[in-house]
């Protein structure tokens, strides 16, 4: 597949997507979001891939939705035509883990895209924010919903209402990111984490992801039941037998993803 707005490669069992619109700090337009969805869906369907990484450039993960592209849209364009918004949820249907490696700006839709990934590893240069308020709009892809769940109501209100940026240290303190590393280590750190994940049994990895996501949808008792049933079902896999036999036998497991 040929892409114009992203670069795609495979590193071992990891699929890597680089957002690639450097002239506009990886501003997210319909084409980029369509291509990103296609690339991630392709990796998701590929048995040789166990995890994915999405990254940008040193200067920007993504500076938000493309403001120039949406400046003249009407209400009917964005509501009925779903311009801008129509391709945004594909990433949420990806069942294997997706890690965001964030260097530089992750603003507006860029911050929201990072939050749609399963976790964020960021560089000490990273800057997160929801500056839509400065444009006379509000976040449209989770900034008012995923952000409060990730960082608390107080911090989310502060960011959405003032439009200020939060640096990497503040983002880590607030719980938005799982790790902060020096900028030149960021992508490698994410690729290494993805490589670790991709070596595990894919069914257990997928069920772990599904179960953690359940924690954000509905009551605790339902989440606990879902986790319990997922846990039970993994005893039907060959990989559970292999993983436990390998531990008991003091050897490395050889997972077959079955
Ligand atoms: N859209 C389009 N172009 C952009 C964007 C953007 N979001 N961000 C930067 N650019 C362009 C600039 O216009 C500039 O182009 P040119 O060289 O032709 O003048 C180029 O990128 C470089 O940018 P700057 O010169 O501004 O670089 P600086 O280092 O001075 O500043 C900033 C970097 C602070 C990141 C600054 O560019 C900025 O403030 N950008 C806009 C950030 C922003 O407001 N983001 C939110 C956009 S709205 C949004 O994301 C809504 C999401 C809704 C999603 C809903 C889907 C369901």
Descriptive notes:
- The chain is of the alpha/beta class.
- It has helices at 30-45, 67-70, 75-79, 109-116, 146-151, 153-162, 168-174, 186-198, 202-214, 220-233, 238-248; strands at 6-11, 14-19, 51-55, 60-62, 98-102, 105-107, 119-123, 127-129, 165-167, 179-181.
- A six-stranded mixed beta sheet has the order 1-2-3-5-7-10, sandwiched between helices. A four-stranded mixed beta sheet has the order 4-6-8-9.
- The longest helix has 16 residues, at 30-45.
- The chain is globular.
- The site of octanoyl-coenzyme A (CO8) has 21 residues, from helix 2 and strand 6.
Which ligands does the model contain, each kind named once? octanoyl-coenzyme A
Number of helical runs?
11
> What is the share of helical residues?
40-55%
The total strand number stands at 10
What is the percentage of strand-forming residues? 15-25%
Q: Output the helix-strand order.
A: EEHEEHHEEHEEHHEHEHHHH
The poorly predicted ranges are none
Give the overall silhouette.
Answer: globular
- The secondary-structure class comes to alpha/beta
Q: Give a quick account of the main beta sheet: strands, pairing sense, barrel closure.
A: 6 strands, mixed
Protein name: Enoyl-CoA hydratase
EC number: 4.2.1.17
GO molecular function: enoyl-CoA hydratase activity
Pfam family, one: ECH_1
